Amino acid sequence: MYEYAVLVILFPLIAFVLVGIFGKRLSQGGAYVVVASFVAAFVVSLFLLIQALQNGMLSGGIAEEHVPLIRWIPGPDAADPAEGGIAFNLLIDNLSVVMLVLVSFLAILIATYSIGYMQHEEGKPRYFAEIALFVTGMLGTVSADNFLQLLIFWEIMGLCSYLLIGFWYHKPEAASAAKKAFMVTRIGDLAFLIGVIAIFVVFGTFRFDEIQEKIPALFGGGALDARMMTLIPLLLFGGAVGKSAQFPLHFWLPDAMEGPTPVSALIHAATMVKAGVFLVARSFIFLVPTHEVAGNLEVLHDAVPVTAILTVAVIGAFTAIFAASMALAHYDIKRVLAYSTISQLAYMFLGLGAGAWLMYAEGEANSAGYAAGMFHLMNHAFFKALLFLAAGSVIHAVHTNDMRAMGGLRKHIPWTYRTMLVGSLALAGIPPLSGFWSKDEILAVTFENGASNNLFYLLFAVGLVTAFMTAFYTFRLIFMTFHGEYRGKRAEGIHESPRVMVGPLVVLMGFAAASGFFPFLANGWGNVVFYGEPHAASPLDAFLAFPGAVLVVVSIVVAVSGLLLAWLVYDKRRIHAIVFTRTETRKSIHTALLNRYYIDAAADKLGRSAYLAFARGFDWVDRHVVDGLVNLIATSGRVISRASDAFDRRVIDGAVNRVSLDTVRSSLTLRRIQTGRVANYTGMIAFGMALIILVVFVAKVVLPLFGGG
Amino acid sequence: MAETGLPILSLLVLVPLVGFVVTLAAGRGLRSARGIALAFSLVQLVLAILLLFDFLTAGGLYPLLDKGSGTACLTPSNLSTLQQTDPAAGPLCTDNLGRDPRIDYLESYPWVPSLGMQYQLGVDGLSLPLVFLTPLLVTLSIAFQWQEHHRSKEFYALLLLMSATVIGVFMALDFFLFAVFWELVLIPMFLLIGIWGGPRKRYAAIKFLIYTHVGFAVMLLSIFAVYLNVTPGLQSSLYTALGGSSSATFKPSFDMVVILRAMGDPVTRGAFAVGLQVPAFIAFFFGFGVKLPMVPFHTWLPDAHVEAPTAGSVILAGLLLKMGGYGVFRVLLGMTPDATTQLWWVLAIFGSVSMIYASFVCLPQVDLKRLVAYSSVGHMGFVLLGAASLNPIGIAGGMFQLFNHGLITAVLFMLAGSAKHATGTRDIPELRGLAAQMPMFSLVLIIAAFASLGLPGLNGFVSEFMVFNGFYTGPLGPGITFVPYRSLLLIPLTAVAITGAYYMWMLHRMLFGAINLKLRNVHDLPHHEVVPYVILCALIVWVGIYPTVFLGVINPPAASLGALVGGG
Fold it and tell me: Whole-model pTM?
């Protein structure tokens, strides 16, 4: 039914190949080809969405469809390779359709923006080819129908991320950041890989639907005990922690800002880092294993890995506040946004964790937290892409990242200011912009869980504090950048970015403002993304019911007060920023925040020195012990053979020579015996034989008698 | 014994052998020598591709190639050491368990019947990828080292001799012939290192020769033990199983097909009991392990690589190491299955140690070639791990790793050659910031490094993933279980992270940052180097995305070996 879905991946892939090979000869380094391929992919995705809507996407979800891609590993039986092999298919279900549309749409905007941003760069073909490959990877990730396929596309994204962060490879910081990003995420990927293998060992398949079906039957058996049931989602979550830069693998993302800004927007804000959230959403089949009872999905209560759920929620909440705190102090406009991204991603994890707990507590499928997390994913994709692109526009104008050298820019770059302001309001959670809705849903679900587990009250409080911090640092950024007086060197020559850059900003501004209302169209986001019957109230009902309404008020108050504080400090200057660093304690906190709690330095130093020490040690052992032993054997062999050589020359050969000298002498005398007569020779042979026999006799019989030989 | 078709297996050996003689005889200087050598090598490559094609299409090239005529199945009549034939028994394509221990292509002629030797070449799914890889890498090596002015005639001739002997090892199905080829391989490689090598060439060449020769000598013990003590009994039990009278007695034989066939079946296996298998296993394992090489018997490899000319390195890492891996699957698993089932942990330990140890040693290496050499040691650890898995997927992964590593490491060694050629040095710290000056070189290096560190989408990942997957799944049969070891089994996985780290660091140091000022005027790859890169990288990507073709070849023998050693 959806066979044409393959085209979604194919278009960007073809663009990658074309631009990769012929990029130098295409206009704008192949940028148009790439954008066109994204548009094509978007159109196909839209078709998929429309078809899915017609097939009842909003009422209980469409029937999953697996569009065959390739048979990757054939089964052992040559006659029937389908049996026991591993095949790759595209999965078409609610979530993947939405993600395909979202990703391809953002890709169009950001690639278009790149045409302007990268105008004067060398190596544009390389840039656009890598972007095309990246988008292929992301589209493949969200449409994978099994965990292995997901891992493969996931790693392709990792490769592109590496290459694009290191786009300015001659800059040492960029090269280091690229290496760091790849290595740190790879630690998470290793956990993911182990998880995938564990899945195969237990289930004999990688496919989501088959696993989901098998869990009820297998659980309690030998292969799938409670420990394994906890381990698998935790391992998968390990991959998500790496990819989505969650604590403790968070520290690669701020450094990744060394890449070009559109890359930060596309990969490190809107799409790739979301793959971790997406993976956790896909691993809901483990987090809340269900079985079907009379058409309803009911939770298998005993099999629920409570530890895994709480880990996801707690890591989420902790990273949210942890990253937000670092965003408070930084001056690099992109790094502030990067910390904000980490913090917001953590919010999504909190939402998913809370959602899983909610389902566990209620015992049936309930989309509330799941939908909130995925809703926030979409909203964040819009407003964070917008913020990054706007930041790129700022950097484009003033050629620095340092907010201390900005200020008062709203007069020079008004469109950038307007769009960025809307993005910031959305991020800060000011109604009615998009961020408010999803953030509030996440907080509401977390609060609701508090009734069944008090821990969630704590997480709710953390989320609330984070919301305050978010509003504060976001508007600190806005005021430091756009308000007040210009603090840079020369104000003249600062001009607005070209239309090809401002256009995407305006479009994104529209979405950042409006995407919060999308659930109203579908009567709840759960209807759009959830895999079962949503069982969630429509958004308005949820907000108006108690305690929802109170929570809404609380969260609005918190957001607005954060905004106001930033306004007082950085715009009106009623409160001087010095207050944050006045006392020793405050100063040391500020320094710690600027130094990212020293985790970077420690991880760097520890990792590098331990690893190098290990490696050098092994190398030393190899050269001196293992190879030394080999050489020792060789040397002793040589010594022994020298000795035997000497023995051979002096003793044995000496004897032979002595004998042969005698032989020569005697042969001179014996020459006359050489008569040429056969009979004589026969006699000689007989004599020789007799001599040999005598020698053998002596050696074999006589010598043993004397105890020799 | 394709009676009606082309004797393609013999031709695969003979063509390069004739080429060797012709190049030596007719080669006058560089141009004619390399031309002749390339022509012969190309013919061999075409033959190998024909064979591959025929295999994939299940006999599509009939009657040019004829895999029928009873060679595929074992009958009394082609058990060449059997004196009588018993037509009533009929062809025996499946054993008592219904498995298919098939050698798909077989050419068999009596050689010294009185000693039980025959000229017997065969190809199945295990050897076919390697049979394809051999002429491919030799041809590309000739193309790559297109400008060898020093004694060109001998150089190109020896590469052909290399090709003939290596492919002989992969196809020989008679232990005597196998041993002959195995030893013959040493001669051209010894000369390649010894004549065209770097400053320490004599040390390296002799170390290589002695080390691998010692391995061979130990292995020979096992061959003779099997020949003298085991083969008569195996033939007899096989003969009985085929319907002959049980009173017949047999002479010792070198026929590997008979041994494989008899060991493939629990009923006929009796003459080679576990007690006998274990010592044979140990000696074989040492011989193959030295060749593979595995830690701690690996130190000949870095030295040999550092000194060898580029073509020599490519063939050494791409093909010679594969002889060890091939031996592991053909002989260790195929002929001493019960010992393997018991001693899988020996393979696993040596494999894991090789992987982790070599990966760590890679990091501080200064010489690019040395780094790649150590990475080869690490990657060959996967082969042992695959064999240790006793699982069809793991074994297939190990076999596939031989092929994949051949492709990747060929590229990496060629790159070391290119770097030396362009800049005059292979020292990584000297080669700063090459990306700006040598974009094509950098691109190939990035592809090869990522393939080698196991990036999904490139070929290395496929085999490594299969090895791990098989290893953690463990044997399928009842009675043997890996579950008690499962947490220990995680140790080799750390090698994946370490491998990633040293390649990242290498790329970082070589390609990125500001360029070394001394290298401001270096040129990117010359044309004759680009061609091999394009072909190999295309294969790396293609196999990575669509491994199905080669896995279709590898899977059947892996499945039957997996069933043999792991039950199920």
Answer: 0.88
